[in-house]
Amino acid sequence: MTVRTLISQLAGQENLNFLLTNRIPRRWLTLFVGRLSRVRNPFVRDASIAIWKLFSDLDLSEARKSQFDSLHDCFTRELKEGARPVDPDPTVLTSPCDGIIGATGRVQDGTVLQAKGFPYPVADLMGDPQLAARYHNGSYVTLRLTSSMYHRFHAPHDLRVERVTYISGDTWNVNPIALKRIERLFCKNERAAIQCRLVHGGHLLTLVPVAAILVASIRLRFLDVRLHLRYQGPNRIDCNAPLRKGEEMGWFEHGSTIIVFAPAGVSLCERWKSGDVIRMGQPLFDLSPSGAPAVD
Fold first, then answer.
1. 128-137 tens-digit pLDDT
2. How do the domains of the chain map onto residue ranges?
3. Does the annotation mark 203 as catalytic?
4. Among the options 72, 98, 170, 217, which is catalytic?
C-alpha cells in the first residue's frame, strides 16, 4: 500500500477527517501556514509542495510558469493563456471558478441549503438583510474548490462591482463532512459578499467567497487591501470597478468555496447537478430570454 493510498483511506473516515481538520486550533494553524507558505526557501518550498501532492491530485501542467518562489506562489498560480476559455454567449453567466457543484436551488423564505437538512439564512451569510431580500425566489449555486484546484476567480459576465461587505469569522473546514455536521457553517466563516451589477440589463448578482482553514485570506484585484483574519469586519467597502466577462476578480490563498446568487428569472444550466466538476468560463446560469427583472 502506498503512502498516498493510506492517506486517502484515512481521509475517508469521516470521524477522523472531522477531528483532524476541525478539532484543532484552526485560527492559529491558519496563521502559521499562511506565514510558512510565503517562505522563499527552496527546501521549504519543495518539501511543502511534495507534502501537498501526497494529500491531493495536484496537477501543475496548466500553470503559466513551472518554477515557483514559494508554496504560496504555487497556491495562487496563474494559468497558461487559453487554459480556461470563457463562453462568449451573452445569455449565460459563466462559472467564476473551477469547482465542484454543491447545494443548488431557489432561495425560499430567505434561506438556502449548505447540505441536506441544513438551511441557513442568506441575510446572515451576506451580512446585509436588504441585499439578501433582493434574491427572493432567486437562484443560488455553491462551488467548492479543492486544495489542488486553480484558486483564482473571475467575472461571470460584463459587470460593475458596487460594494464589498467583508465579514471576519472562523476558519472551519468547508468539506462535505463538515457541511453535514456544522449548522450555518458558511455564516460562521470569514467571507466577503461581492455585490455586482450586470452591464446589460442591470441585474444584480452577488458572489460570496468563503474562506476556510489554511485559507482565511481573500484578495480582490480591484481593492488595494488583503482581506484576512486580522482585518476586522464587518466592513462595507463601496466600489465602482468595471470588469469584463472572464476578467480576474481575485483569489484565495488555498481551496475554499464561492456561493453565487442570481435574481428571480435566472436559473442554473440544466447540464449541472451536485457533484459535477465545473471549470471557470463554462456556462453556469441561463439568463431568461425576457430578462430577469432588474433590482434597484
1. 999 999 999 9
2. 3-75, 92-287
3. no
4. 98
